[in-house]
Specification:
The protein has about 325 residues and is of the alpha/beta class. The chain has a single domain (about 5-315), classed as TIM Barrel (Alpha-Beta Barrel). Helix content is about 50%, strand content about 10%. It is built from 13 helices and nine strands. It has helices spanning about 5-10, 30-35, 50-75, 85-100, 125-130, 135-160, 180-185, 190-200, 215-220, 240-245, 260-265, 265-280, 300-315, and strands at about 20, 75-80, 105-110, 165, 205-210, 225-230, 250-255, 285, 315. The strands form two sheets. It has a seven-stranded parallel sheet, sandwiched between helices. The chain has a two-stranded antiparallel ribbon with strand order 1-9. Helix 3 (about 50-75) packs across helix 4, helix 6 runs parallel beside helix 8 (about 190-200) and helix 12 runs parallel beside helix 13 (about 300-315).
């Protein structure tokens, strides 16, 4: 099986032999690993002034960075971050990565139109708007879903993309931003609609949100994504318990404690990785990853320590 096929098998909760699929939502450590800036962190203020040959060089290097990362760390999937993020450049990046790698890797884009936690600068205003102008908030949520599904249809017609990571964050470490009854009004119906639309087009859907998702976990699973990411232990999410309750309904991705990756001991990192493997693997439907991403400031040595545990131990027996 190719890495892409293994990733899809995990999303579909089908049994596989050999190593558990692995990927990171973002692998920002490309400067340490390859001496190159991650594509999403590049600033192309002069893109419009570049010659087409200069743009092509940038596109090629960005595609190569994604593929170097996937090959070196045996990622099964690549989350593309087009930069610039125009429609034309997004399609070119999909095509270029496919041209260079064929169908080896599962390719995804961000695609979440639902409301996320507001920024600190407008949190009060956003919360007041939700309460005082609920009808307007719901109409805007519908409009966003319509717009996203229209974009998905263009991507489906273009080809080359496998799915989406829905990256609206809903939760702090202690609780969701919206209490569950309001979440059921302002988020869940629109999350269900966008996921259903994506799935009807043949796309796979991974729902990402950090923090304590437990008060809204039923609603997230009921929205019917193929997978949940990132199962954040810093938000009190225990992969063993989520697997017990929902492992027959949704693929689980993540749970290696990012806090321990930065401030824990090596032994604690190893144990966190082993805990995820031990409780995520049984019955299939698990993809190994951190509880967020391989973020800027994380030691490459620490990521590789976690990675080695996966590489050596996260292996299903051969049939």
């Amino acid at each position: 099986m190719t890495p892409r096929e293994r990733f899809i098998a995990a999303l579909e909760r089908r049994p596989i032999a050999g190593r558990v699929p692995h990927f990171e939502l973002v692998f920002f450590l490309t400067m340490e690993a390859f001496g190159k800036i991650h594509p999403s962190q590049r600033h192309y203020a002069q893109w419009d002034q570049m010659s087409e040959s200069e743009r092509a060089l940038h596109r090629n290097e960005m595609a190569d960075i994604y593929l170097e990362t996937a090959r070196k760390y045996e990622h099964s999937a690549i989350f593309l971050h087009p930069n610039p993020g125009t429609e034309d450049e997004t399609l070119r990046l999909i095509d270029l990565v496919r041209e260079k790698s064929g169908d080896a890797y599962f390719l995804m884009l961000h695609g979440d139109p639902t409301y996320s936690i507001p920024s600190g600068s407008d949190m009060m205003e956003q919360a007041a708007w939700f309460y005082e102008r609920m009808d307007d908030a719901m109409a805007e949520a519908d409009r966003r879903v319509d717009e996203q599904l229209a974009w998905c249809e263009r991507l489906r017609a273009h080809g080359g993309l496998d799915g989406f990571a829905l990256c609206a964050d809903y939760c702090f470490n202690d609780n969701p931003f919206l209490r569950p009854d309001l979440f059921a009004i302002l988020i869940t119906p629109y999350l269900k609609r966008v996921i259903a639309g994506m799935r009807a087009m043949g796309f796979y859907v991974i729902k990402h949100t950090d923090g304590n998702i437990l008060p809204i976990l039923d609603q997230l699973v009921d929205a019917h994504p193929h997978a949940l990411h990132s199962l954040d232990p810093q938000g009190g999410v225990d992969i063993a318990e989520v697997k017990r309750q929902y492992g027959d309904r949704v693929c689980l991705i993540g749970n290696v404690n990012c806090g321990l990756l930065t401030s824990g001991t090596d032994a604690e990192v190893v144990e966190s990785a082993r805990y995820c493997i031990r409780h995520g693997m049984p019955g299939g439907g698990y993809v190994f990853s951190t509880s967020n991403c391989a973020f800027t400031g994380l030691s490459l040595e620490r990521y590789e320590l976690m990675w080695k545990v996966w590489h050596d131990e996260a292996i299903y027996p051969e049939e």
